[in-house]
Amino acid sequence: MISIIITGYKEPKTIGRAIESFQKQKINGKYEIWVVAPDKETLNAAKKYKVNILQDPGKGKPTALNLVMKKVKKSDILILTDGDVYVSENSVNLLVDKITKKVGAVSGRPVSVNPLNKFFGYVSHLLTDIGNDLRIKLVNEGKFIVCSGYLYAIKNGIFKEMPENILSDDAYISRFIANKGYKIDYEPKAEVYVKYPENFKDWVKQKKRSTGGYEQLKEFFSEKTMRSFSQEATGVFDVLRYPKSIKEFIWTILLIKLRLYLWIRIFIDVRIRKLSFEKTWVRIESTKSLPP
Description:
The chain has helices at about 15-25, 40-45, 60-70, 90-95, 120-140, 170-180, 200-215, 230-235, 235-240, 245-270; strands at about 1-5, 30-35, 50-55, 75-80, 85, 105-110, 150-155, 185-195. It has about 290 residues and is an alpha/beta fold. It is globular.
């Protein structure tokens, strides 16, 4: 049995497309779809489809995942995704086929749907494309990767519960599975289509939240993750090779400056102001409406 778990929050306009992108697939074997959300708007929109509905208490995604994990104990494989994205054809089979005795999790590939001719659209394509190249490189070298929270599969039974204050649940689950002795694999053909922030305010909020979440993992694991200031610094040359025009090169330089600004903000908030990691979680409104 495959359990497809879609978590969401105030996403009645996108949850249908997320569900349909799975129901249109010819999935090998028996499967079920779960929609987990705290708000009635999302759940009522999901009820139009033949899926399992579960209302969570609204305490965050980790709490929602902990709750649904108790409902899918008999499943062999779990597919985790979000209610504001949609996936490519045959993505489930591609992910499931890579799960073996030694492979405990498989990540899909995030693909930006933002327009490439706008600055933050260009940034989203640059970062997702370089992230794709990095995951392929690390897997080929037999190294650890973090699954993308937008779409990944895990072998059920390895992971059961996480602390409710976790910000990067995908990074936490990936590291937990790897520490149990399993390999994390990657399937670039299993694509998940994502809308990224369209303005500076939302971009900073999202990146601060995700990067801060990686920093938070130091409280739980001694191993390094895929994201750190030193790792980003060494990857600058890869970023500079990406642009294909003078305009894109200028945008790339601006992105490097913005990332430096982001790390300074995180250092000040966490190391100097001593703000809790939980305060970095905010809803990113400009990512909640997918294009047709």
